[in-house]
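Table S4 entry, DNA-directed RNA polymerase III subunit RPC8.
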Amino acid sequence: MFVLAELKDTIRITPEQFSLKLTEAIQDEINRKLANKVLLNVGLCISLKDLVSIGDSLILPGDGSSHTDVIFRYIVFRPSIGNVITGKIRSCSREGVHITLGFFDDILIPPSSLQHPSRFEETEQAWVWEYPLADGEKHDLYMDIGEPIKFRVSGELFEESSPIGPPQKEGPSTSKQTEVKIPYKIIGAINESGLGVLSWWDQDNQEEEVAEDEQEQEDDELNGEEDGDGAYEE
């Protein structure tokens, strides 16, 4: 789920930071630039791991700051396809079920990747798994906000979100809203056994344990009756 990415950058250290050790100033500046930021085709940057190499520091004409080429390793959140992760349901919409990990919210389970058959309840704003029963009936299992959910990573989507120019001025007849781009989105799936809302499977396990306990109790009663009959005959 977390990987080490080796990156290279030119780090600018301002004169106000010259009182610090060079390595300390570089580490602070790298974390300031990258922490909690998404790098295209790399992932969500979490924290600096270590510095691999530090080049010579140069002061360019007209700029009192130093510029240093640095190679470093950074801890990045980018789960592999097929990883199973547990998160919480943030919200539901016709687009699917939106999941949060606390530090990362852009996770979507589309309707095609939900347990089948499922439907979207407009009044509850929740997806519902129509769980089939043995007698042919169905039992509704709701995907409520805040419920822990286990899903498998089935895809990822990176999108360039850097500004490409000044925003266009809207005229009197223009009512278009600027679409917010999500730089990194994870696509998940729960349409297999053992995945989905954790309480679904906890309930199944409890029902199985109750059935086993009842069967053991019946077996004990039968064994007791057989032992009692044998003692009476003697």
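Helices lie at 22-34, 198-233.
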